[in-house]
């Protein structure tokens, strides 16, 4: 999972919320503890969003310069241990905390990156 970059790289993950607990899961995430929010920001979780479908499909996205460091940073925080323990009952099929169990989904398309690349390729070389 290691990746250190000067620009934050996108990360996408998938989990499964128990369908009967989707509404409660959404409520919990509408008011995340301020200490947890600060910990996420301090450990490099940028532009973090979680989407949850009514069937329990849970997709999270964020940007980070170093995924391993961001995960390790949160793993070292006491607030994260408390949050993960509170959230554990919401998930299907997880024996470990969600932040240790989510399925990373590889990036297949990036509009901005491809546009930038195509613009760079089509720029004429300066004439001498």
In short:
With about 130 residues, this protein is of the alpha+beta class. It has helices at about 20-30, 35-40, 65-75, 80-85, 100, 110-120; strands at about 5-15, 45-50, 55-65, 105. Strand 2 (about 45-50) and strand 3 form a beta hairpin.
Verbal overview:
The chain has helices spanning 22-30, 34-42, 67-75, 78-87, 98-101, 111-122; strands at 4-16, 46-52, 57-66, 103-104. A 4-stranded antiparallel sheet has the order 2-3-1-4. The chain is α+β, with helices and mostly antiparallel strands and 128 residues long. The termini are far apart.
Strand order across the largest sheet: 2-3-1-4
What portion of the residues fall into strands of 2 or more residues? Answer: 25-35%
Q: Give the C-alpha Rg.
A: 18 Å
The stretches of 5 or more residues where confidence is low (pLDDT under 50) are none
| Structure classification | alpha+beta
Q: Number of DSSP helices?
A: 6
Largest beta-sheet details = 4 strands, antiparallel
The best one-word shape is elongated
- Order of helical and strand elements: EHHEEHHHEH
Distance between the termini: 45 Å
Helix content: 40-55%
Instruction: Round the mean pLDDT to the nearest integer and report it.
Output: 92
How many strand segments? Answer: 4
């Amino acid at each position: 999972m290691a990746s250190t970059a000067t620009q934050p790289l996108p990360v996408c993950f998938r989990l499964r919320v128990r369908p009967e607990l989707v509404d409660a899961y959404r409520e919990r995430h509408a008011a995340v503890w301020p200490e947890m929010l600060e910990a996420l920001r301090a450990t490099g979780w940028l532009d973090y969003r979680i989407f949850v479908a009514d069937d329990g499909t849970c997709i999270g996205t964020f940007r980070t310069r170093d995924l391993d460091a961001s995960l390790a940073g949160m793993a070292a925080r006491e607030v994260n241990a408390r949050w993960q323990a509170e959230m554990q009952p919401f998930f299907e099929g997880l024996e470990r905390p969600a932040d240790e169990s989510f399925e990373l989904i590889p990036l297949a398309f990036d509009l901005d990156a491809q546009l930038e690349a195509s613009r760079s390729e089509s720029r004429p070389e300066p004439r001498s």
